[in-house]
């Protein structure tokens, strides 16, 4: 069992990542107020331990907002979770795959893109399956494999 360590909302493409303590999610859309809406990449999620390992390899601190993810989890390893259902509080997320670190990582700190490449350190992206609210501190866990709801099988 893990927990939500941080939540960020991106108001517009390329815009700042605003930290919030709570966020409303809409099934099939994403986070209310976030620039990325609809399609398969409705939410991006990183693992705090993987982020820390990337910074260790990089050799210097970087604010996690530089990763440009919506949620940071503590206590959940995200590597190789493609196809799994992630429960964030009362909201389910269908994980579609690994988020590939882009050039913006090196704009934040030179070498960050390479430090995020191994072991899915850049996190995952997915589709929001339920309407609901998530909060920093809410419990998070991966659902059992093979229990993917029919709405996630598209």
Structural class: mainly beta
- Please state the CA-atom Rg, rounded to the nearest Å: 14 Å
Largest sheet: 7 strands, mixed, barrel
Shape: globular
Summed up, the helix count is: 3
Distance between the termini: 28 Å
Structural domain tally = 1
The total of beta strands comes to: 11
SSE string? EEEEEHEEEHHEEE
Sum up the structure in keywords.
mainly beta, M1 Pyruvate Kinase, Domain 3, 3-stranded antiparallel β-sheet, 154 residues
Structural write-up:
- 14% of the residues lie in helices and 35% in strands.
- It has 3 helices and 11 strands.
- It has a 7-stranded mixed beta barrel. The protein has a 3-stranded antiparallel beta sheet with strand order 4-3-10, with no helix packed on it.
- The longest helix is centred in the middle third of the chain and has 11 residues, at 48-58.
- The two termini are 28 Å apart.
Quick structural gist:
The chain contains three helices and eleven strands, in the order E-E-E-E-E-H-E-E-E-H-H-E-E-E. It has 154 residues and is mostly beta strands. The C terminus is likely disordered.
Please outline the helices and strands.
Elements: E1 2-10, E2 17-20, E3 22-26, E4 30-31, E5 43-47, H1 48-58, E6 71-74, E7 85-88, E8 91-98, H2 104-108, H3 112-116, E9 124-128, E10 132-135, E11 139-142
Parallel strand pairs: 5-6
Antiparallel strand pairs: 1-2, 1-6, 1-11, 3-4, 3-10, 5-9, 7-8, 7-11, 8-9
């Amino acid at each position: 069992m893990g927990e939500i360590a941080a939540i960020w909302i991106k108001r517009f493409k390329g815009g700042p990542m605003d930290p919030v303590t709570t966020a409303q999610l809409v099934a099939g859309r994403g986070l209310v107020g976030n620039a990325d809406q609809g399609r398969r990449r409705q939410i991006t999620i990183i693992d705090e331990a993987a982020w820390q390992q990337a910074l260790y390899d990089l050799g210097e601190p970087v604010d996690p907002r530089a990763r440009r993810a919506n949620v940071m989890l503590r206590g959940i390893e995200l590597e190789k979770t493609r196809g799994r259902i992630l429960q964030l509080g009362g909201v389910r997320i269908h994980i579609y795959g690994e988020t590939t670190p882009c050039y913006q990582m090196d704009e934040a700190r030179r070498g960050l893109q390479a430090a995020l490449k191994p072991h899915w350190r850049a996190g995952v992206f997915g589709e929001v399956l339920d309407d609901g609210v998530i909060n920093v501190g809410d419990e998070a866990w991966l659902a059992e494999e093979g229990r993917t709801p029919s709405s996630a099988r598209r």
